[in-house]
Structures are given as structure tokens and as C-alpha cells.
Amino acid sequence: MKIAIRHELTFSPGAPSRALAHLLLTALPSAQQKIEQWSIEMPGIDTAAQFRDGYGNKAHLVSLIKPGDAISVIVTGLVATTDKAGVIGRLDLDPVPAIFRRSTASAKADPALIEGLKRGSDIGVLHELMGRIHEAGAVQQEQSEGAQRQSQSSKPLDRVHAFIGAARALNVPARHVTGYLFGDEDVASGFHCWAEIWDDGLGWIGFDPELNLCPAERHVRLASALDAASTMPVRTYPVWTALPAEKLVISAA
User: Fold this and answer.
1) What is the sign of the dihedral through the CA atoms of 245, 75, 50 and 218?
2) What pTM did the predictor assign?
3) Cα separation of 3 and 183, whole Å?
């Protein structure tokens, strides 16, 4: 499948004399995707520093002087995808998988979700875990919709972080992945997140607990790291305000 992407984000930098933007918005080739065209447009991108970060992602560091009232970041790409049942193996400049056993505040294990599951990267066990987390999220959503008023202390289940935390508790390296999803009649297209786990035989394998499936030809992979905070597509200093003008078009090419 060929997927065309055009993603425009607009920010208000405020009124600083200088600003920095760290971008993780570059798709890289893998066993599941071939990058036929990819570009990023924004002020300062032509002179931006480009580097591979500690997680193997391609990053841009854009420096701006007197950035003005509004900054637009426009990503366009054309990607040919192949269904590999989520298996992408090992990517270029991947770090040692063991660092993805490290826990973070946003990816903590719920003991109830891993009760009775065997430790280790057994693929069948991880599929069972994905199913448990997907179902737990669905049950919570039904309960919330049926309630007159949701408790302030109740938060929607973040299925991706729940899966990552549970996998790490089973001693399986797991990481957070950002990208794009080309939707169908059941699921809308959009910016999307999922997880990858490390298997000694197959390498990295994707699991999407939101959809309860392994990423296939409708997923376009951008970046991966420990959690959502370390895979933010745009991180800025000082912090910019995202304006309600985001436009994202994902289509078959």
C-alpha cells in the first residue's frame, strides 16, 4: 500500500527573542515501510541541526530568532508499506534493547493485567496481554459513558502505556512508538501511538492495544523511545502553545 501524508501543525511561540524546537517528525525505512518522499517545512528548517538521537530517531533542532506570533510545521510524505505482521526486526542505530526495560512514571504495570502471565517474550502471552488491555479500556469506556458524571479521580486508560508497563513487568523490553494511521470504515485516520516489544529471535515487534492488532500496512512509523514524553513530535523551549489549526490528511496514493 502507498500512503500519502500531509500534516500541518500551528503554534504560538509567544514573544521570546529566541526559541528552540526539537522535532521527531521524520519517518525512517524499516522492514514494514519504504520512504519514497519525506519533507518538513518550517522557518529555520534549512539550517537546523540534524542528528540521530540516543533511541535511533532522526531529529531536527531548529533555532529561531524572534519567531513571531505563529509558526507552522508542515510534514509531507509518501510511504510504501508492507504487512509484516508487526515484525520490523532491528533498525539502523537502534540502542541496546535492555534500556527499554526501564520503568517510567507514565508506564507503570497494573498487577491485575499481568496476573497469571508468564515472564518473557512469549508472543502468545503478549497477544493475550494486548487483548486484556484493549478489553479493559473498552469496559472502562462503557462504564464512563453509562455514568451520570465521571469521578474527577478517574482517568481514561492509556492502553499503550499500560501495555508497555505490563510488558516491562514481564521482563520484556518495550518502547513507545509514534506515527500515522490510515483509517478504514471502522477507524479514523490520524496521528497514532502504539508499542513495540523486543524478541531475541524476531527483533522488534509492534503491538497496537488501541486497535488490538499488530501494526500492518496502515501504520506509518515515525519515532520510538521510553514513553510519550520522550517521543513528542514537537518539543519547544520556551514552551509553545498549540493553536487549534492542526490539519492532517492521510490518503491512499
Assistant:
1) positive
2) 0.93
3) 11
